[in-house]
Amino acid sequence: MDDITPDMDYQKFNKVKVILEEADLRPLIGVVPYSKDETLRIEKPHEDFDELVRDLEKKGWIIALHGYNHLYTTKDKGMFPINEFSEFAGVDYDKQEVMIRQGLSQLREWGINPIVFMAPGHTFDKNTLKALKVNGINRITDGFGNSPYIRDGITFYPISSRRKDCISDKEGYSTFVLHTNTMSDEGIEAFKKMLNENRDKFISFDEYLNIKPVKRSIFGNIREYLMATAKHYLVSKKASKGTVIHKQ
Fold first, then answer.
1. Under 8 Å CB-to-CB from 127, ≥6 apart: which residues?
2. pTM over the 0.85 mark
């Protein structure tokens, strides 16, 4: 679940929360420590936000550091070129290290223990990985693949290139992102229906963290880069035809 902030759309968030709890599934949620993204400001900030997230963590939900302030300041595609905008890719190492360190500090002040990094826009670079490791974070939810893999000393938990692959009969594991702020009531009901009809194909994210990662080869890295480039091209092509595309 993406874009979790004190001023998110709580009504939609809670609807999806209930669906997941009824299915006994514990997701990963990406919490933005210092959100300045106007598109994420739906409600007046809730003073009990930190209590809400602490309670979810106690129930087994996994917390991710979702960037710093969720503002895209570069057009660098980084190592995973699925988008051409970034909060991190193309930013010098020292600044990235400060952003990650201060972001983690804020979440910990709220009594939250983030153990995964979720890059806004899915874009990051080698400096991001270095800064994460320096600050004790060695897991990222990103990349393409059918199982967790290790690259540059970081364990990656792949996202799905297509949502329908998550409920296919293909062997392996991947994730998909829910942006509850932008989900319609129909979209929420469609998610509930999909989940109910395919419950046996889903696991909680804490279970995903226990899947043994594999070593990613240079050829796997190249294949991933090409797949991400192809998806970026296809999404851009749809957008140019007037299709509304939400920035992942």
1. 88, 91, 92, 93, 96
2. yes
- Separation of alpha carbons 106 and 47, rounded Å: 15
Q: Residue 1 is which amino acid?
A: M
What letter would DSSP give residue 88?
S
Strand ranges in the chain using DSSP code E only, listed in sequence order: 28-31, 62-65, 116-117, 139-140, 149-151, 154-156, 214-215
What's the start-to-end Cα distance of the chain, in Å? 11
What DSSP string describes 126-138?
A: HHHHHHHHHTT--
| Domains in the chain, CATH or no CATH each | 10-240 (3.20.20.370)
Q: Look at phi and psi of residue 122 and say left if phi exceeds 0, alpha if psi is from -120 to 50, else beta.
A: left
What would the pLDDT profile of 160-197 be if each residue is shown by its tens digit?
Answer: 877 777 777 888 998 989 999 999 999 999 999 999 99
Phi-psi category of residue 10: left, alpha or beta, with phi > 0 → left and psi -120 to 50 → alpha: alpha
